[in-house]
Amino acid sequence: IIKARIRLALAPRSSIMVPADRSMTPHPPDDLVEALLLRYLQTKLRQPDLRYLTFPARFAGGFENRVYGFQLQPTAQQFSGPLVLRLFAQLGDAARVHREFALQNVLSDLGFPGPRVFVSEDDVSILGGPFTIMERLRGAAAYTNTIGLSNALPMWVELSFRAPRQGAEIQARLHALDADVIARKMEDAGI
Which of 70, 90, 117, 161 could be disulfide-bonded to 134 (CB atoms 3.0-4.6 Å)? Predict the structure, then answer.
């Protein structure tokens, strides 16, 4: 496994380039994403000796995107904790990636509970699609996959009562924010 990771880390980036005429990105395998992401971060942070503390592990779900959790060895302040990589499926998602980057950070600045996004990248030659890197917040996902678990029914019953209330509370907090401030900050971010 170690030799495979080293070989992938040294592979030329051009070996995974995607033709521009395809609307869906055929993402590289997870182990290649792991190696290419590390190379990207070593370059971006100008730290060639940067290594993973925990290797990227793919999360269940993600719907249209691949989502990975990982952590780097202690480094620059914003990259020192648990992180999330969102690898978008659509080649045309560059504008969406930048909008989400700006909006999530604006909302976070205004005190809305959500992760700060540190990187918004639209160069599909890096990981095979546009992507973001954001902080990973503590806590459990609101909706989890419980199929196949012996206690699945009780969990789904609990979820059916908890989810609407959580959703309503989050929406109430979001709608309580000043829309003019959000619009002005989005304009300042070039969106």
Answer: 117
Per residue, the 3-state secondary structure of 78-129, as one string, reads HHCCCEEEEECCEHHHHHHHHHHHHHHHHHHHCCCCCCCEEEEECCHHHHCC
Do residues 127 and 30 touch, judged by C-beta distance below 8 A? Answer: no
Residues contacting residue 112 through CB under 8 Å, at least 6 positions apart = 173, 174, 177
Q: Are 186 and 106 in contact (CB under 8 A)?
A: yes
pLDDT by residue for the chain (191 residues), tens digit each? 444 444 444 544 444 443 344 444 467 778 889 999 999 999 999 889 889 999 999 887 666 788 999 999 887 666 888 999 999 876 666 778 888 888 888 888 888 888 889 999 988 889 988 899 999 987 655 444 444 445 555 666 676 777 788 778 888 888 888 888 888 888 888 87
What sign results for the dihedral spanned by CA atoms 179, 184, 186, 191?
positive
Q: Which residue, chain included where needed, has tokens 């060895």? A: 73
